[in-house]
């Protein structure tokens, strides 16, 4: 129960007319026992107050106001720097509804275990009530959540990544539906860490972590895991996809979505700058989202996409003015940097980043750092953690589309799947139709990156780049994709790309980054019934000369190698796909088994 003082505070700071919400906040405060409860209104004055408090408590360090105005540095516990998929659970009544690719816990057990950790976990802390909207407030795409958290860092990040505060409460009204999101850092003990999703209760409980993907509950937890469940029920798609627009010289803009596993370049592609050689064609690229897309069938029978987020939570290492100049400009102000290198001059830096490193600083682990320092393995001591991040408002991106937060979304011409594969997958291929496209998405495989705890580099199946994010049985998810195709009168075409193919000496064959526009150009031409292609057993690849390489120096024969479909390698891939499909038993749609057989026959003939 709240004390009288706490009730007064809440009333004073604008608690809602929503009795269900007020009762739930009381209930959680009764478990976590915070010293006070603060309802977040989203105002500038409140932001300043929270920043001041974060600084006073040592959780935030203000950066040099000349070089990084409005920016803060934050360092998380070294045991808490990436998503912890092995501690992430889908808590459905029936285990089979979570499916073979998710960890499952019975809802009663989940609530009970987490409650033990939550009991009194906020003593000495404030509980912040953060009403937030995923998607523009009031848009037909949007969903409302309320996150209760004991972390100022979380409030300030949610402020960037979502729309928060008073307008959201107004939209919620007296009886609106919302996702109940509870987050407590507790004591950051890994052995008590749990990220629990209760899709049947519209509820998320996350304890023991302050890392973005585990703690900013609007992102992976709501906008993917819970939303994917809701999307199946309501007939739409919640996907791990960027959204970008390609503007042609006549002003016409075509939009695509692309799903790549975490840390495989979605942010870079979403913010692409046309390469020198294609400049003459006058393209402009517009960014609408870099991580999540919600898609619905529009009144014109096409699929329309909306980015539910309002900011970018991007991977810092590797971001520089060659790989992503727009990101560098985006993070030049009002950005929170997490686990990068903090210079003694109050600047930030990361490996493969921008400019010279500071002469000395403190690294992501809090260790003194100089460029010449070596770690225990004799290699240079890392300044930034490989999964260190920046959190920046979407509106600050120079390439942000004017319509990025349009309540009606944008119509999609192509869906692109991709993985990080050294071999096998060509630079690009087009699927043979929606059903085959769903097969292509369902069989995406990729080498693991640093965005989640685990062995980096290991190849794993990551269907639609949703393996860690699908909130229900993936067999049913594939079925839902097939149904969405059937109910979309004018579905987009589905493609697959691989920017990471290597030659026999282990060198990347494709330069990537801005040059990827050349591939997008071919993809869009194909959606208009143009663009030359050769049919292969796996789908259509660009015909010789069909990808415009003007001004691009590729090594001799590189394009042939990039587009080569090696039948023996593809045949060798099939038993692994079959084994993966078998895991879903009778929840696997028959269509996918048929697609696998048909591919086998095409490859063998
Ligand atoms: C992310 C991720 O942070 O996919 O976007 O891990
Ligand atoms: Mn992601």
CATH topology of the largest domain: Phosphoenolpyruvate Carboxykinase, domain 3
Count of DSSP strands: 31
The CATH class name of the largest domain reads: Alpha Beta
Span between termini: 71 Å
Determine the structural class based on helices, strands and strand pairing.
alpha+beta
CATH architecture of the largest domain: Alpha-Beta Complex
Supply Rg: 24 Å
List low-pLDDT spans.
1-12
Largest beta-sheet characterization: 9 strands, mixed
**Chain-averaged pLDDT:** 95
The total tally of domains equals: 3
Tally of alpha and pi helices:
17
Helix content: 25-40%
Unique bound compounds: oxalic acid, manganese (II) ion
Principal-axis shape = globular
Task: Write a brief structural summary.
By secondary structure, the protein is of the alpha+beta class. The protein is built from 17 helices and 31 strands. Helix 3 packs antiparallel against helix 6, helix 12 crosses helix 17 and helix 16 packs antiparallel against helix 17.
Please describe what this structure looks like.
The structure is a single chain. This protein is α+β, with helices and mostly antiparallel strands. The chain folds into 3 domains: 4-39 and 84-234, Phosphoenolpyruvate Carboxykinase, domain 1; 239-310 and 405-604, Phosphoenolpyruvate Carboxykinase, domain 3 (Alpha-Beta Complex); 312-396, Phosphoenolpyruvate Carboxykinase, domain 2. Helices cover 28% and strands 22% of the residues. The protein is built from 17 helices and 31 strands. The strands form 6 sheets. Strands 1, 4, 5, 6, 7, 8, 9, 10 and 11 form a 9-stranded mixed sheet that branches. Strand 6 (126-134) and strand 7 form a beta hairpin. Residues 1-12 have low confidence and may be disordered. Bound molecules: oxalic acid and manganese (II) ion (MN). Manganese (II) ion (MN) binds at residues 240, 262, 291.
């Amino acid at each position: 129960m709240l004390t009288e003082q706490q009730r007064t505070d809440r009333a004073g700071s604008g608690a809602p007319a929503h009795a269900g919400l007020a009762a739930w906040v009381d209930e959680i405060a009764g478990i976590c026992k915070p010293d006070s409860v603060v309802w977040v209104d989203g105002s500038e004055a409140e932001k300043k107050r929270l920043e001041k408090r974060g600084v006073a408590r040592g959780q935030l360090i203000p950066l040099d106001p000349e070089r990084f105005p409005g920016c803060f540095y934050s360092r998380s516990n070294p045991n808490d720097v990436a998503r912890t998929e092995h501690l992430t659970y889908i808590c459905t009544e029936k285990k089979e509804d979570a499916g073979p690719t998710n960890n499952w816990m019975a809802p009663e057990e989940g609530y009970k275990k987490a409650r033990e950790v939550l009991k009194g976990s906020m003593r000495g802390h404030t509980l912040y009530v953060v009403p937030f909207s995923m998607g523009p407030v009031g848009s037909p795409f949007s969903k409302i959540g309320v996150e209760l958290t004991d972390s100022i860092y979380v409030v300030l990040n949610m402020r960037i990544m979502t729309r928060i505060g008073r307008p959201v409460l107004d939209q919620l009204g007296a009886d609106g539906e919302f996702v109940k999101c509870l987050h407590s850092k507790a004591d950051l003990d890994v052995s008590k860490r749990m990220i629990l999703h209760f899709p049947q209760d519209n509820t998320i409980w996350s304890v023991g972590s302050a890392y973005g993907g585990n703690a900013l509950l609007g992102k992976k937890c709501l906008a993917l895991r819970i939303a994917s469940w809701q999307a199946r029920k309501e007939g739409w798609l919640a996907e791990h996809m960027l959204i970008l627009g390609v503007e042609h010289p006549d002003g016409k803009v075509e939009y695509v979505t692309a799903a790549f596993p975490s840390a495989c370049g979605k942010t870079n592609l979403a913010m692409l700058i046309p390469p020198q050689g294609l400049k003459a064609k006058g393209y402009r690229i517009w960014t609408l989202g870099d991580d999540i897309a919600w898609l619905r069938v529009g009144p014109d029978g096409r699929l329309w996409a909306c980015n539910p987020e309002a900011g970018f939570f991007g991977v810092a290492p590797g971001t520089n003015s060659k790989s992503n100049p727009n990101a560098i400009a985006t993070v030049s102000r009002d950005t929170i940097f997490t686990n990068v290198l903090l210079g003694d001059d109050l600047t930030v830096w990361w490996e493969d980043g921008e400019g010279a490193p500071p002469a000395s600083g403190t690294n992501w682990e809090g260790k003194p750092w100089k460029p010449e320092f070596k770690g225990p393995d004799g290699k240079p001591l890392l300044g930034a953690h490989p999964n260190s991040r920046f959190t920046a408002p979407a509106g600050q991106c120079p390439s942000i589309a004017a319509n990025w937060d349009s309540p009606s979304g944008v119509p999609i011409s192509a869906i692109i799947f991709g993985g990080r594969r050294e071999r096998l997958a060509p630079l690009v291929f087009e699927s043979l139709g929606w059903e085959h496209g769903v097969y292509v998405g369902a069989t995406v495989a990729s080498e693991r990156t640093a965005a989640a705890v685990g062995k980096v580099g290991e190849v794993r199946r990551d269907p639609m780049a949703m393996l860690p994010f699908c909130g229900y049985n993936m067999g049913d998810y594939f079925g839902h994709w097939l149904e969405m195709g059937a109910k979309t009168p004018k579905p987009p075409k589905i493609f697959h790309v691989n920017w990471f193919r290597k030659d026999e000496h282990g060198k990347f064959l494709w330069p990537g980054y801005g040059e990827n526009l050349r591939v997008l150009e071919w993809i869009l031409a194909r959606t208009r019934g143009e663009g030359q292609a050769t049919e292969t057993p796996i789908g259509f690849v660009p015909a010789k000369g069909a990808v415009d390489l003007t001004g691009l120096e590729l090594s001799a024969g590189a394009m042939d190698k990039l587009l080569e479909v090696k039948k023996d390698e593809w045949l060798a891939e099939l038993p692994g796909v079959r084994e993966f499909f078998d895991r879903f038993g009778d929840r696997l749609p028959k269509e996918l088994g048929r697609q696998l057989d048909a591919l086998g026959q095409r490859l063998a003939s």
